[in-house]
Structure formats: structure tokens, C-alpha cells
Hints:
CATH class of the largest domain: Alpha Beta
CATH topology of the largest domain: Thiol Ester Dehydrase, Chain A
Distance between the termini: 36 Å
Structural class: alpha+beta
CATH architecture of the largest domain: Roll
Strand content: 25-35%
Helix content: 25-40%
Number of helices: 5
Order of helices and strands: HHEHHEEEEH
Amino acid sequence: MKCEFVFLLYIFCDFDERVKDECGKIDLYDIRYSVTFAFRIKNSMMETGLTYTSTVVVSKENVAATMGSGDLNVFATPAMVALMENAAMSAVADELPEGSTTVGAMMNTTHIKPSAVGDTVSATAVLKEVEGRKLTFEVRAQDSKGVIGEGTHVRYIVDKEKFMSKLS
């Protein structure tokens, strides 16, 4: 415990000087909060390979004509992307530190084929890379006829309270 305190104190001092130089003022509570959160993330031991599949039935609510992304009654690209994001979010949800969540930051995807109303679409996300708070997923969607979309999705681990405070 004593070792941890010295380590954190050292970080506060180092970070403290950098904040002073760039901003001219310090909010010690924010510094302590940031360091503690970073320490929790580092120790959460998130491993690659985590997988989750989310499923939805194509309905009037998630077709292109209703969502405004097109004028056909086929599974909408925004609905496919949301399903992929949900799978990625769910893949790591149980591994996050308390008070944390993930937020989507980048989606690079291709919608390959249409899916008809009544068909079931499943999106699978596999965690491929962990770089600190940055999580990179391989995502793929398929219906009863095969793959309909695939891509890469990046999410970041954030502290819920601190993230939401940025809205004010």
C-alpha cells in the first residue's frame, strides 16, 4: 500500500507540472480521478478474443425506408452498424472496471448484401486488439443467406460519470 501511494504521488507531481505549464491552473480532483481511472483500466486485464453476437429480426422499424438511409424496405445500413456496435459493447461489458463503459469512436464497414423483412440478422464482434483504453474489434453481420456486412470497429473505455460531465 505504501508503495502504491508513493507511485501515485509521483504521478500527481509529474502531471501537476504539465497541467500548470499548459493551462495555468490545476484541478487536483480531476488529476487524482484520471490517474485512479487509468490505474483501474491497466489492471482490468482485458484480453483479446472476447466475442459476442447480437441478433435482430428485420422489421419495418429497421429498414432503410423508415430510418431515412434509403427508400427500400431492406435492412438499413445504420441498423447493421448499430447491431455491430451492440455486439462489440456487449463483448467486453463484463470485463470493465466498475463505473466504466465503452463508447464507439470509429466504424469502417461494408454493407455487402440486402436482407429482407422477416429475416434474422446476427452481428458478431471479436476483440482483436487492446491498446490501453482503445479496443479494436473485427465485426461481421450475417442473415440466413450468409455474410451481409463486415468491418473494423474501435471503442474506448471511459468512466461513465466523467464522460457524462462533459455534456455540461
